Each structure stands twice: as C-alpha cells, then as structure tokens.
Amino acid sequence: MERVRIRAGRAVDANGEREDVVVTLRQGRIEALGPAAEVDERPADAFTDVIDARDALLLPGFVDIHVHGGAGRAVMEGTREALTAVAEHLARHGVTGFLATTVTAPWDAQARAVAVIAALLDDPDNGRTGARVLGAHLEGPYINPAKKGAQPEAFIRAPDVADLTAHLGDSLSALRIVTLAPEMPGALELIAFLAGRGIVASLGHTDATYDQVGAAIAAGAAHVTHCYNAMRGLGSREPGVVGAAFARPELRAELIWDNVHVHPAACRALIAAKGATGVMLISDGIPGAGMPDGYAFSLGDLTVVTREGTARLPDGTLAGSLLTLDRAFANAVCYSLPQRAALTSRNAAVALGLAERKGLLAPGYDADLVLLNADGSVRQTFVAGRSVFKASP
C-alpha cells in the first residue's frame, strides 16, 4: 500500500505555521501530521518514499480558479492533450487543482472545450501527471461589450438560461464558475439559475452600477472576476463594481497580483477591505505563460504577443496574464505565510465548495501539496499524494 513520508522544516496553511513537521500521505489523503519529535519512527521500508525537506516550506497546493492556458497550450483547443499540457505546466508552479477557463468564442468551440473538461472530471488519470482539473470556468459569452477587454465582441451574447442549457447540454454539470455582466438583460435570471445549481455566478467584464451589483447579489451572485480589471471602477458617488467588491461581504474577489494588471497598493487595498479570507489570487494565465518573449498565439480569434513580461493585443490591450501562482505567492510577501496560503489555496477551495477536502494541511484532507525552496521556487508538487513535478537537483 502506497505511503509517503515528508519531513518539512516548516508547514504552513491558512490556520497557522508549524516548525519541523512530519506528514504521512496514504491513498491520496493526509494520513497524519505532527511534530517530528512526537512521530513514531518507522523503518524506511515502511514507506514508498521518504522525503527530507527540512530546508523547505510545505504548503497546501495552490488552487487556480482562472486559467486559460500555459506553456503554449490553450483550454480553448478543446482537446485532452492540451488540458494535460496545461496541467503539467501548472504543476511546475505548485498548482494542484485548477478551473480550466474558456473565452468568449463561437458556441461550438466553447461547448467542445467544456465537454472535454467534463469528461476529465471522473477520469482516474485526471491529476496523474499534473494539476487536477476541478471543473470549468466559463468566462463569457454573457458580458458587456463596453468592458470586453480581450474578449472578442463578435461572439458576445445576451444572458439567457435557455441559450446556456441548449449549448452545453450534459456538460453543464462541469461548470463551477460563470463570469457575466449583471446589468445585461436576462442576467439576473441566469444568475438565479446558476446559484440554484451550485454554480458560482461571478461578476466580470461589466459596467454595472453599485445598485445593479446589489440586485445581482440578491439573485445569488457571490464572486467578482479579476477585480479592478474590465469593470466599472470605484467612484465617490458611484461606487461601481469595484466599490461593491470592497463593501459587500457577500462577494469574494479574484485578484491578478502580477504588479502589471493591478498596482501593489491597489492589491493591498482590496485585501484590507475584504480581509485575507475574501480574496483569491489567480493567474488568468494564457498560452504565453512559460513561453519566451515575443511568443505569438491566438486567444479566441485575437492575436496576442508576449513582450516585456506582459501579453497584449496589437492595440496594446492587456490580454490575460503571464503570471503563475508561485510568483503571485511571492508578490504578496507583505502578508504572513498563513495569509498567503489562504490567498493562494484555502479561499479558492472554500469558494468551490471543497472546504472539507482541500486547502489545509490536516488529516483526512487531499494530499495536494507543494514544497517551496528558500528562494520561493517550487521543489516538488504532489496531487493526491503522487509526485507530479520534481525540480532537478
């Protein structure tokens, strides 16, 4: 029976920090965790693997709920091969679970991508060589053209329950988050439909007023997509979507902390307003993540080029991010390690209804873990107790 023992110099989750800890992994779960001095010694041959990480930091694996691609591959390719490549890219950066995220596109392309995601969810090979696909995040097509950002306007549609169900069919069960603009006609009915099925309705690519966001919350909205970006900003007399994100505790907020999309001071302001439990760091990663400067690719029907650490359309519009969550974890260095563990893992698990399984270092939780070196680089990533990435010595 497979059993792995890890001795870590420090172990940190959203609940706190511990020194010199031994963690035992068995059958995909954390079997035991405690101070090294109190752990009964067993011979090495009692374990499939014994890992000495006394110079490393052990964390719950990062959970990225908004990622379009990486390493030159895209979710919108709509193939298992592409998703596997993205999953392996994410594991190299400490991610153990993610929502494969679509972009606004012709419905057949979106439906094909979601169908591949749905097929993977119950597949025993999901998470075998990289991060585990936890479901789909449908970003569009029910957004406001005035705040489309890098989403192609030609394929934006009016929010409509019948439209969604007709095009996704049985794949609807794979949806975990749907990003939409609540001010568009039909949006409130769609939000109520999603909330009634346990799907997170997220406000994004939106020019909604504060009052319109309030109506969306009343209908069941609970989330804000990449806060600050592609939405009505905070004003003194019209707080807009950003003001609602700050003021309404019902909303959790995504944040791209790459120091490009959002200024570090604005990142800190959002966390000060909502607390470290109300914000989730996301990558918004695209195929250019992990690729060299000058790499060109398509995002939907739009051409994107990476340059100087950013990804942009020909007109200069930011088009997703080259961020990875290990880098986001490092960028949030002004916060304590437990707070950063909440921002990169625990809060996303809670938002997805996985609070009893993921995002903490505790017996019975999924053995989704990341070991970081002293310089913040990823040493090893585990999904369900299996090593899916190990850096070269």
Percent helix, as a range, is 10-25%
Number of helices: 9
Query: Order of strands side by side in the largest beta sheet?
Result: 5-8-9-10-11-12-13-14
The tally of strands reads 20
N-to-C series of helices and strands: EEEEEEEHEHEHEHEHEHEHEEEEHHEEE
Largest sheet: 8 strands, parallel
Average pLDDT rating: 95
Instruction: Supply the helix-strand structural class.
Output: alpha/beta
Low-confidence segments, ≥5 residues, pLDDT <50?
none
Q: What is the rounded Rg? A: 20 Å
Shape: globular
Give the strand content: 25-35%
Distance between the termini: 28 Å
How are the SSEs ordered, and which strands pair?
Blueprint: E1 3-13, E2 16-26, E3 29-35, E4 49-60, E5 62-67, E6 69-70, E7 73-74, H1 80-91, E8 95-101, H2 107-121, E9 132-139, H3 161-168, E10 175-180, H4 187-196, E11 200-203, H5 210-219, E12 223-224, H6 240-247, E13 252-255, H7 264-274, E14 279-281, E15 296-299, E16 302-307, E17 310-312, H8 325-331, H9 337-351, E18 369-372, E19 378-383, E20 386-390
Parallel strand pairs: 1-4, 5-8, 8-9, 9-10, 10-11, 11-12, 12-13, 13-14
Antiparallel strand pairs: 1-2, 2-3, 4-18, 6-7, 15-16, 16-17, 18-19, 19-20
Helix pairs in contact: 5-6
Task: Characterise the protein shown here.
There is one protein chain. With 393 residues, this protein is of the alpha/beta class. The protein contains 9 helices and 20 strands. An 8-stranded parallel sheet has the order 5-8-9-10-11-12-13-14. It has a 7-stranded mixed sheet with strand order 3-2-1-4-18-19-20. A 3-stranded antiparallel sheet has the order 15-16-17, with no helix packed on it. A hairpin with a 2-residue loop joins strand 19 (378-383) and strand 20 (386-390). The chain is globular, with a radius of gyration of 20 Å. The model has no long low-confidence stretch (mean pLDDT 95).
